[in-house]
Amino acid sequence: MKNLKLKAARAALDLSQQQLADMVGVSRQTMNAIEKGDYNPTINLCRAICKALGKTLDELFWEEDT
Length: 66
What we know:
The chain is mostly helical. The chain has five helices and no strands. The relative contact order is 0.21.
């Protein structure tokens, strides 16, 4: 499942995938895979992404019940 909340939060701060990847210590390809839903990041990476974007885990990674 695509992580559109992550992509939107990144875009809202005018950050490229490469810039965010550099901030959290991963490759741009890893960040792209996370946004596309092809890679399930560790909790530590999730926390680093949230900190970099000023968001909570719930705001970026919690799936809404449908």
